[in-house]
Records
---
Amino acid sequence: MRLAGHILSYQWVDFKPVLTIYDGEQVLELDLSDVERIDMQVGKERVCVGVMSDEEYSPCPNHARLTGSWSQCPECARPFIPDLSCVFEPKCDGSLCGGVEFCSRPHVVYLAMTGNLMKIGMTSEKRERQRLIEQGADAYAILRHEKNRLEARKEEKRLSASLGIKQAHSKRDILSQMKKKIDYDAMKYTFSGIMKDVFPPDSSPPDFHVLRDYPMELPLRRVPFLRPTPGRHSGRILGLKGRFMIYDAPGIYALDMGDLVGRRTRISVNFK
């Protein structure tokens, strides 16, 4: 199967990783969990993905070039979030932008574990489990429920500082965990110790959730080498977890699939 076009999104539908591609005429979805071998040629330039809804897709009218981690230009993002900087640092509870749903809806603050790494994060309450799968977490717990994004961000920073747990990890550190066997018992033991610092002794700790159905067999025989996104990626897929596709070329390599979004790509795949 061969495809060519503009990558609109990389997302997880439960534990199924899906690339969405606009070929100039229609929006197509490629389920990567069914792919055995892949050959991709990825362009350098990133262009706004436009606006996609359940009903239709509209390309960016300005073909705006992207910078940073955004997938949309300010004009295309405006109906959903008027100020893109509020994705990371919300300025209000949504009221300054007319009650925009992105910021005003309930959020949660979580503790995520990926191998030996821990992080404190926050996300929309309705995307709780999906967000942790997108990050490739092996286990997680919800520490706080907050009424909006601003309050969740404040609590995320407070818990991160008080517990001494990071809010993010480097790609290199995340990939280093793929050479290790996942020890869920050790994770739960560590989690139980941390909960003593978060909740009073007479309270019930939050549930400890395990995520173990990624299309990836771990441990790998070596830590994957992260290849630059632009260029060619060709080989046998070893698995996908969070942002990363791991492939054998030979040698074990990683591609940051989130960085594909906005790029033009030619893809040839062989299915299992």
---
Amino acid sequence: MKKENNYVQLASANSEAIREYNERILSALTLIGGILAMLPLLAAPFSDTKIDAIPAYLLVAAFFFTLFLIFKISYMKKYTLGGLYICFSIAFLLAIYLSVIHSPDMRATVLLGAFCIMPLCFIDRPARMNLFAAFWLIVHTILAFYLKPLYALDDTINCLIFAILGCYIGNIIVWVRLEGYEAHRLLIIEKETDVLTGLFNRRKLFETLAVLETTRAEKPSGILMIDIDYFKEYNDTYGHAAGDKCLNHLGQVFSKFSREYRLYFYRYGGEEFVAMAYGYDQEELLSIAKSLRTTVESTDMDGHHTTISIGVAYCGQEKVRNYERIIDRADKAVYASKHAGRNKVISS
């Protein structure tokens, strides 16, 4: 149960990476599977046994190519995991057909490969992948004892060995992949996150600005520049430890706003922060900024209170080539707020 909970936690935290990996695997398996299903047809002119299996190979190839096309549709990508199980179900059906119907006087060979390859190919809960392999092992065993009793015991033992081996190594590989994704995710968080506030850092801000210069990137409708009022005096009065706690509390407030609104906060440096807003008109943006200001003002920071000055630079549908200029506009609005008495929201 503990391992299952660990899987759920890791898979949830790295769901995007897992989804992308499974999508690539499904695309490759269906395309390669369709091509490989066609290859035995080349041997048909030289083998009577291959001629009998032509309809099965053609049907499997058709299924694989159809799956390949279906899962190129954006809407279908959310069913990728189901597509992978369908893909391997087709492979197992073909292998079982070859083993117990087409060649009942021969030992299973293709089926052994299916039991080995399936657990190694994609990422899902190990228990579910094991049950899937066990289901096809039981199906083949029952059919083998009924349709090819001469080799049924040999096939059962061989398939069991390969299924256990495949599932054991496959389960290990699933965990190795998950732990690799988690290590990569934590490394990115460490690289992009400010330690004190938990918000994005300045490095991440400039990476975002670089992305905004590309034509496909969604553009922000406005930028907020936020400055903590009298932060130096706050540090001098209550100490740097209290100042760090103040930054931490503000980070929590800003993070809450990120969850409620399409705002992405970055620590710009010292007591300055930048927030990028998406999908708001000028009035909505000002209203959100005022709400942020009043929320900070009313936040208890271990018995202390502080205020912020906010500069709002609305860009809406402007054709902006360099968003650093928009940040400069917001920065000038902050200085105007400071000169106007602090704890205010001013738009540029």
---
Amino acid sequence: MRTRGKRLCAAAASLATATALAVLLSAGPAAAQADGPRIVNVVIEGNQRVDRDTIVFQMKLREGSVFTAEEANEDFKRIYALGQFENVVIRPEPVEGGVRLRVTVTELPLLGRVELVGAKHLKPDKLLQLISVSEGSPLDRHRLLSAVPIIEDEYRRRGYYFVEATLDTDLLDSEAVARFTISEGPKVRVKSVAFRGNDSINANELQKEIGTTKGLWPFTSGDFSLDTLESDVARLRAYYVSQGFLDAEVGRDFTFDSKNENVSIEFIITEGTRYQVASVSMQGVETLSSGDLAERLALRSDVFYTAADLRADARLIRDAYGRIGYVHAQADPKADFAAEPGRVDIVFRVTEGPKITIGQILPTGNAVTQDKVILRNLGFEPGQIADGKAIEAASGRLMQTQLFTSADLTLVPTDDPNIENVAVHVEEGRTAQFIIGAGVSSNSGLIGNIALVQRNFDATRWPRGWDDPGAFRGAGQTLRLVLEPGTERSEYSIGFTEPALFDRPIRMDASGSYFTRDRDTYDEERLGGQVSVGKNLTRDVYGSIGIRMESIDIADVAADAPRDVFKVEGSSYLSSATVQLVRDKTDNYFVPTTGSRVSVALEQAGALGGDYTFTKILIDGRRYWTVTEDALGRRSVFSLRGRAGFAPGSPPIFERFYAGGQGTIRGFQYRGVGPFEGDEPIGGEFLLLIGGEYQFPIYGKSFSGVVFIDTGTVEENIGLGTYRASAGVGLRFTVDMFGAPVPFALDFGFPFAKDGDDETEVFSFSIAWSF
């Protein structure tokens, strides 16, 4: 039927053209004008289901227009493309004053039923949606035949490599029923992935570059996909080329087991020569020294070529120019085969451009946030020489305020070629959060959470009417109200942060809190507040001073409680003053992957009176390295951390150092490390913690693993007595619950150095969710 229809359509198109030419030749001088005969009227016939207007809407030839064979052919194509007709004929008929255009259509029959026989592992509704076929639609034989490979491809994409699908054409022609018979076959899973010929790059590195993986329930399905396999071949070759193996070739082979349920895959690699750099040269360098730049490049004579180093060196050159105002400088790299086999010549073609001074800074997109909030987070001002790195970093600083969902900075030319304005376009995000949630951890038990947070608060912006969306918003201040009732600990707090006190680069933090904790042999209750002010002393160093005042009540003391608990039983008052310095050179404050962060704090209790006088010194340092980054942008990060604390002056038991559990030494119970009296921890005046952790992606963006070593000690006085150490593994992942992501942290720590009184705990965990 479809073949016969195609022949009729082709004949109709030819007939329309021939007839049009005949009309033009026979109409005489009056009718056969240079621009063709006029259409007197248009007749549509043969349409029963499709209304006339739908057909006419597709046509450019209308009543009163000039007829041409070319337009008739185009109209034929547009009408036929509706997918409603088996045949379309457009025929001009000579009449007085021009031609009548007769459009005759033959509608396709309707599809009676669609049957999917044998579809067990894929839902029929999904398959019907995929092939765009439904009962009662026009019977398009070509579309139905094309649906067969679409069904097979979908099954193969899901691991059913041996699937076969057929369409019963006899039933289609006789009864207008589309019956697809599907033989799914077994689901094929990847049993093993191997590499042959990879003498220079180990298999673990190559596995990160491909999408084909072995099944590892519940993290990866291991479904076999031939399309993915072919893409992997291209990815591997591209990776080898990027590592300097410019002649590398990659093939693949796969073998099924006897039941066709498992497949073993082998990538066959011919590495070829790994190319080295023969020479490095620069063209167009005038302002800077080519020699100084060359000394800083990773690529130089006799080192192995890699595409990553080439890109990094080009960026280094651009950044060097950008720091001195040449923000439009370009360094286009090119690697040419050298005359000597196995070597390449590297050429950087440098275009310096003009030296730019910053003109105006023009914030846009901030409907609520005040301009000054944006300007103070940029790190540069009008009149300064443009610094490309500073402009690039400004976007990150704006995003770290958590006020915006995007922040784009663009240089805008002015009449002066050496002065450019900076357009700062932001998109404001939702800065108010109301959170109701809960969490559980091995340290603190079950904890509820009710929080109201406004990160773009303005304490001076009072409402100007009943309906004022800008009330108390826009100054970049933060207001926090947090209620955390729990089974073992509860805390209720209110906090306020002003990032620019009196519009100066001074940050102020103030908070008040009420805290209770049920200890094993006593109950601890605190009520107090603290205030601190600070500022950035340099780009990376922040300094602050603060005061703390608390009323502490120790009650329900058990008879077997440590003696130090009885010393502080009842109500007491504590005040302290703190000086702190923080140097932060990490790439991201919340999820660091490179850089370091070091803080030093000195706290003096009794500075404003009270019942206790002691000193507390705390030093904390962390260092992060990105070890690898895969094709999906997921990073494997190694980190080291160290913390040392010293509190001379006999601090009360509730101000001493403790260790054990998450955040200190995993593998030990919460407060399970340190001096004990009986079975109760009493803390110490000296703390030392040193640890390392390697976090790596396992599956997707939100599932990763960790390997760690935690070491440290808590001592009554400064010194090293018994040193504790544990090693372990953990998982980090999120699961959608109640429509929100729930973070899980599971750790298994195994102590290999401990004291006899220490309390160990192999498994520690934390879960927190909001809804």
---
Amino acid sequence: MPIDCDEVAASALSGGKITHFKRLDSTNSWLQKNGQCGDVCISNEQTAGRGRRGNQWVSPATGNIYFSLKCCFDAPIQQIEHFSLLGLSVGIAVAEALADIGLQNHGIKWPNDIYWQQKKMGGILIENISPSNTVIIGIGLNVTMPEAEASKIDQHITCLSEALAKQTILKQSTQINRTKLLIAMIRQLQSHLDKFTSLAFGDFKRDWDKWDVLKNRSVTFQHKKKQITAIVAGLDQQGQLGLLEQDNQLRFYSSADIRLSKPLNKSPYKQ
């Protein structure tokens, strides 16, 4: 079922407009060049989708959702003390939107991935652009992913239709209305963005702890060419990951400092 952009605009946008493409290099790149504050760009397929560290985001035309939002804050981002929490807050918004449509046992893998039972379902890319108060928020969500396309991705992935089909209560109906899904995502995203500049860390931490799939788990990561195993122990006020290492010292790392190894260790969820 195609996305009804008029319905999305009427139901979810408080300003800005939606531009929808069948095929595009990157929704983030298009908005950087053409978008105004509050605008949303959607594409059925991306030929040059990208993730963190310049990695490619495989974006086939299989019925997934790829969209970006151009967000303009009232102040330069350098003046927003907790700006480093933005990507994590966007992750919370996506997780809440998925809960709104009935998904269970999903969450956020620090710093920017949406996970369902140890498998990646989506990702987030935040890019700062000029002027200094402006960011592009890109979100990719696997809604349907045929095995032929999934095999091109070098990590464990899943899609929303697969996850919903495995939930007993929804086994009889896994048809996903992408229009309603996109409305839920944009509504939650805008709600979190509206309150972001005045966000209290205690409120953020409460929400993060609810969706954190790594909390209290053992992970292995690379830091300065060294492989380290540690227990995840929450975040600090800059959104850095707290890791209790084998010398019993708690250290905090930014997403630029470390790379978590794959696959993840044992999931806390019951299968």
